[in-house]
């Protein structure tokens, strides 16, 4: 489905603006299919909706074992692989803390972590065949740091299946490209200035790659005794890192690593992954040597 036409489709999902750029004739049905699939995933895995599949089947489970559908098994298998690679720094069981906070909103941040930490982490859940097993009933998943990125990857799968020669998917700054622009050049994307998000800080080309940036300068999480970054970790995000940007083969992999690197910028990453930091002095780094121990 090659074309000299550029079709742009915009919508809002998962609380962020979403943009689909397709180089294809009659691209509207494909763009709408991407939107429909994104909304389906949002509804299915919504942590905050008590009627979502995630809430009903996993977080309100009646036993320590849940039989998974193939889609959920695929997602959790990939997530576990990347969580293990980040030494458990990226942790979907943060939903356990969020649930406890909703039930006991007066607890301080420290009290919440002390209460729920034994029920979090990779040791609290496992995959056994098509079954998801839990060690503790208090363990809950929040896939908010996963499903948007997975939706981007799903969008590219739909693009490939349709035979489109070029596409850029951008869901709230989680970006993945496929093919090339009409002039044969790769897509070039910008990473914003953490202290002035109306201005680009640097840009780079993407060749069938994904880019995500994790930062803590815009969104926050409110505890009873104070406010923190929306990127939750017991030790908090690293104070010298304003944002971390990762380039990887998929948006899911990039998103998990960019989040983990915001917490622990000295984390070892595979050679196949590119990353960059913007520090608290607005200096760009392509390694973690600037981190002070």
UniProtKB/TrEMBL annotation:
Organism whose genome encodes this protein: Shewanella psychropiezotolerans
Any GO molecular function: transferase activity
Lineage of producing organism: Bacteria, Pseudomonadati, Pseudomonadota, Gammaproteobacteria, Alteromonadales
Listed cofactors: Mg(2+)
Enzyme Commission number(s) from the entry: 2.7.1.180
Alphabetical list of SUPFAM superfamilies matching this protein: ApbE-like (SSF143631)
InterPro entries referenced in this protein's UniProt entry, alphabetically: ApbE, ApbE-like_sf
Identification of the protein by name: FAD:protein FMN transferase
Enzyme class: transferase
Keyword Flavoprotein: yes
Keyword terms, alphabetized: FAD, Flavoprotein, Magnesium, Metal-binding, Transferase
UniProt catalytic activity: L-threonyl-[protein] + FAD = FMN-L-threonyl-[protein] + AMP + H(+)
Protein family (similarity comment): Belongs to the ApbE family.
